[in-house]
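Subject: Re: docking follow-up (adenosine-5'-triphosphate)

Dear J.,

Thanks for your patience while I sorted out the input files. As discussed at Tuesday's group meeting, I've set up the holo structure prediction with adenosine-5'-triphosphate included as the bound ligand rather than trying to dock it afterwards. The sequence and the ligand SMILES I used are pasted below, so you can double-check that they match what you have on your end before we go further.
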Amino acid sequence: MRVVFLSPSYPANMVQFTRGLAEVGAEIYGVGDTSASALPHSVRRDLAHYLEVPRILDEDDVARRVSDWLRGKTVDRVLTNWEPLVVLAAKLRERWGVPGMSVDTARGFRDKQTMKERVKAAGLRVPVSRRVRTRADLFAAIEEIGFPAIVKPIAGAGSDDTYRLDSRRDAEAVLARIGHVDEASCEEYVEGEEHTFDALSIAGKTVFENVMTYFPKPLEARQNEWISPIAICHRDLAQKKLAPGIELGRAVLRALGLRDGFSHMEWFLTPRGEAVFGEVACRPGGAGLVDLMNYAGDIDLYREWARVACWGHFEASTTKKYNVGVVYKRAEGQGTISHVQGLGEWLRTCGPHVVEERLSRPGQARRDFTQSQAADGHVIVRHPDWDETVRMCKAAASTIRLYAR
Ligand SMILES: Nc1ncnc2c1ncn2[C@@H]1O[C@H](COP(=O)(O)OP(=O)(O)OP(=O)(O)O)[C@@H](O)[C@H]1O
Ligand SMILES: [Mg+2]
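The structure tokens for the complex came back this morning:
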């Protein structure tokens, strides 16, 4: 099983997918722009070969270099779990005749407007939306959609350049701020809770599923620095409230043609109990979501993904033992973390249920929460009872405080 794995060490959790591939017996040909000498030790151990390229996002250049490198060899899989590379991986597959997702299918997961059109064409509920390139486009879209509306980049991430518009004045202000965005999507603002639907699929059928709830919705968390965002993976996926979202998720994957691998969808649950599509990616959720799913059932989805991708099998248990919640902290003040308050007390009361405590320590530099969800560190708890999980997360959000100066 010869596997070309794009970006085997970046972002950081790709190191674990590289390990998974090695554990299921793949001969891994890694391609990335991290210098060979800077690869983590385990990646060097797990890769059979590594091609360092100057710019991993330069598709034509990478395609040329990798083709030269592999000339005369057959390749069984071309894989990546990093969003910006999913189209490149598909191009390489098509160029070499390797099985897996096509370029057209990959584009359905990358271009938010195409994505919504395909999901809508399958009869599923998506926000009304328009592709906008100019000021005139935006005002024409608002004319149709009305307020409140959302403006966001066609291929965005991390809520970058995403704004809620409540008036024409908001629209003018946003136009002044998103001049660098070539193409955006303007859509109906959907009220309600925000959840994920995560899946690992084989031959178009999900073999593992997860639903996570955000507190509050990511856009609000991004716009208010004082918030400690919480996200909790549900133990009980059979509860009635989540059913419309799970059904929507499965239907979206069918509509977009996902056959094998991870997917990460976001959806809204309106006050009337209706599930509305948000967006979907053909890769696992970031910011430690794979770890949360692993903690829920004491499994190793890094390895199971590799088993699915290489051999078409999934061997882990799908029984969830716990709800798993993560709380991200943002320090108050700028500069260097000076002290952490409330952690000892929180650990005394929640200790047995805490599976990770990775808060920044005094002396460490503050991190930019707009650049990384992890911000100034996180804690993860798990518990069989939902309310108890929520309680511990809320306690971490409100009683642990980090200060910087
Ligand atoms: N139509 C909408 N109605 C209400 N809120 C929305 C809508 N579209 C986006 N949002 C809010 O903006 C956030 C970011 O939007 P979206 O998930 O589409 O972009 P993203 O930047 O790709 O996010 P990610 O961080 O998941 O990559 C959403 O999580 C949600 O909170
Ligand atoms: Mg999103």
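A couple of observations from a first look. The mean pLDDT is 96. The first strand starts at residue 2 and ends at 6.

Let me know if you'd like me to rerun anything.

Best regards,
T.
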